[in-house]
Specification:
Largest sheet: none
Order of helices and strands: HH
Mean pLDDT: 84
Radius of gyration: 24 Å
Oligomer: single chain
Strand content: under 5%
Length: 96
């Protein structure tokens, strides 16, 4: 946004819009739904990633004291699917 805030006239509320084509309503509803989905993913993804990283770190710490790293393999088996799902949305064609 620029340095100046340009205002012409007074603010007003829009009560209704004349829509001549039903496709406009469908496109607007789809855009609103995609926006809500993106907001939810943006909220959940960092928490899931942090939980996965913490689980892997705990498994690595247990493996250091245990002498075997079987725990990391077990945790990775459980964590790979959520991580793949999150990363797939970021690298999918057309997601940006």
């Amino acid at each position: 946004m620029g340095r100046y805030r340009v205002v012409i006239g007074d603010e007003f509320e829009v009560d209704a819009v004349d829509v001549t084509d039903a496709e406009v309503v469908v496109e607007a509803a789809n855009a609103a739904e995609r926006l809500e989905d993106a907001k939810l993913r943006r909220l959940l993804a960092p928490g899931i990633l942090a939980a996965c990283a913490l689980a892997l770190l705990v498994a690595a710490a247990i493996g250091i004291f245990d002498g075997t790293f079987n725990e990391i393999g077990a945790v990775w088996d459980a964590v790979a699917l959520p991580l793949g799902a999150i990363l797939a949305t970021y690298f999918a064609k057309g997601s940006l």
